[in-house]
Structures are given as C-alpha cells and as structure tokens.
Request: fold
Amino acid sequence: MSELPQQQAKKPAKKGSASARNRMARLLAAQAVYQLMMTDLDADTVMLNVRGRSGFRDGDVADEFVDHDDALFLSIVRSQQAKKTDIEVFLNEAMGAKYKDLEVLLKAILMCGAAEILCHHDVDAPIIINDYMTVTDSFYEGTEKKIINAVLDKLFKQVR
Reply:
C-alpha cells in the first residue's frame, strides 16, 4: 500500500471582502493611535497588541466577522507616527481652538485619516474619508462624522 502524500496545511481564508478588511484595518489603526496617545507604550508594542485582535463584526453584513488587512493597518500606524508633527500642525490650523477640545479618540481617527491621505496616494481620498466616517460611526452617534468628513476633505484638497 502506498501512503498518501501529506497535505500541506492551508492558511484559513481571510474573512470579509477587501473593502471590509480595509475598514477593519482603519478601525484598528484608530484604536492603536488612541492607545499611543493615552499610554507611554511604544508603537511596536501597541501594534503587536492590537494586531492580536481578530474577527470584527462587519456593519454591512449582520453577524459576519471580518479580518483586517494587516499590511494596511501597519502602514497607517507607521505613517501616522512618521508624519505626526505635520498632521498635528495641519489639524490645529484646520480646526483652530476646536481641535484642542476634541476627544482623544476623535483626534486619533483624524490622525489616521490624515496619515493615509498624506502617505497613501494609491487609494482614492473619497474612499479613505468614507471609511473613516464609518469608523467614527462605530464609536459615536452624533455629528462627529461631519467633523471627520470636513477636516479630511480639507486636507485632501490641500495636498492632492
């Protein structure tokens, strides 16, 4: 009797569409940047902690969990860290005194969106802005989404 060749272990398929995985990467990036703003942890530690989370509920499909695009997540957080000073200057200029009074989570969402607009020219800005508005809806029920839209749209028009 001949033995059957051993089957190679297959990697589990990524759950969710590419756009849903991108949205989850953006949500995780906002959470990572929030943690960086609220703690003394270094970026690598925070990214490692946040990357360990998996299976987020996709708001578009009830009861379906999706993975995140890990490369996009890492790129957003690293871009935000690299451009942190430039982003802070822009946000202060764009919003004036209102920026100082924003909740830290809303600042983190703006920082991630701004980092993507500045560094990820391969993605259309309206897609980025729309996804960060969706991320904002994950945490807020009020007019915060309008702030995200207005500020990121202003940045887009200035830099692209």
